[in-house]
Design goal:
By secondary structure, the chain is α+β, with helices and mostly antiparallel strands. The protein folds into two domains: 199 residues, no CATH class; 51 residues, no CATH class. The chain is built from 14 helices and four strands. The chain has a four-stranded antiparallel β-sheet with strand order 1-2-3-4, covered by helices on one side. A hairpin with a 7-residue loop joins strand 2 and strand 3. Helix 2 runs antiparallel to helix 7, helix 3 crosses helix 7 and helix 5 runs parallel beside helix 10. It is flat and about 75 Å long. The protein starts with a helix and ends in a 5-residue tail after the last helix.
């Protein structure tokens, strides 16, 4: 029938995208943390069907060229079958100021939650706090998400939007507070709201405990009071370096920092860094003992 032909779009193959953002996760999951899995579970509950599957393929193939995240809004460019990349926009229904204040009041009464938020961690039970004040942290229905794409596909969300959904799931692993930003408030603004209640809640104790100097900080030797003595220096003790050996963990600091946001390389960011760190450790050890490279 004519209307079926009119609304039917033949299968198209996307153009090769250069320098696109490639998913770093392996297997079928996009994200390992509970909040990343929760985000993807919410999307799957919207019955996106094959569109989410095709979106995964686009995300793994590097078809997403850019992603810009603002409070309550995501703008992305996705390379499809046409020369000009498609413009994708995702709007997440933000919470009102009154709702965020109710959340801040509830979190202020939980010292553990306050301490973890100040330390940059997302407490796993935080969703329960939102539920207690009857405010959803994650979108409940597809009406909480408004999506738009410049592609000719009439289905909404299309595979281009789904690809951005998947990459956002990975980004949740790196930045757990992204869900706050999508709901209309940054982590800094939430922590500031918590700080306003510090006289009424256990937050003051939690913050004071976090800011208290550690044992290592107490034992740090202060700088000399005389500038000349500092710049002139003194002879180094023979055991100044202590035992010099290869680090037990390769690229320990980047591993603590987590995945690079929206990585574009052909291989995973840490996989690319580890050989460099390993080689640098070996050469550094040779320099220390006075060996020369052949």
């Amino acid at each position: 029938m004519w209307y079926r032909e009119y609304y039917h779009f033949p299968k198209s193959r996307p153009r090769v995208a250069k320098g696109g953002i490639k998913a770093q996760s392996k297997g079928g999951n996009f994200g390992k943390s509970w909040w990343a899995r929760r985000w993807l579970a919410v999307l799957e509950s919207f019955n996106l069907g094959g569109r989410l599957s095709r979106g995964r393929s686009y995300a793994r193939g590097g078809q997403v060229l850019s992603i810009d995240i603002e409070e309550g809004r995501v703008h992305a460019k996705v390379q499809g079958s046409r020369p000009k990349p498609y413009e994708v926009e995702i709007k997440v229904k933000p919470l009102t100021k009154a709702q965020w204040q109710a959340v801040a009041n509830a979190l202020s009464r939980q010292a553990l939650f306050a301490a973890k938020l100040l330390a940059g961690e997302m407490p796993q039970e935080i969703e329960q706090v939102f539920e207690e004040v009857k405010i959803p942290l994650f979108p409940k229905t597809d009406r909480d998400l408004a999506t738009d794409c410049s592609c000719p596909d009439w289905s909404n969300p299309c595979k281009h939007v789904a690809a951005v959904y998947c990459l956002l799931g990975e980004e949740f692993d790196r930045d757990p507070f992204l869900i706050f930003k999508l709901r209309g408030q940054s982590r800094e603004a939430l922590v500031k709201s918590l700080g306003k209640n510090h006289q009424k809640s256990p937050l003051k104790k939690a913050k004071a405990a976090q800011e208290a100097p550690t044992t290592a900080e107490k034992t740090v030797e202060p700088l000399p009071s005389q500038p000349e003595e500092f710049w002139r220096g003194a002879a180094l003790p023979e055991d100044f370096f202590g035992p010099v050996e290869r680090p037990p963990v390769t690229a320990a600091l980047p591993k603590r920092l987590g995945a690079f946001p929206f990585w574009r390389g052909e291989e995973r960011f840490l996989d690319a860094l580890e050989p460099i760190y390993r080689s640098a450790s070996e050469r550094g050890l040779k320099v220390h003992v006075g060996e020369r490279d052949s």
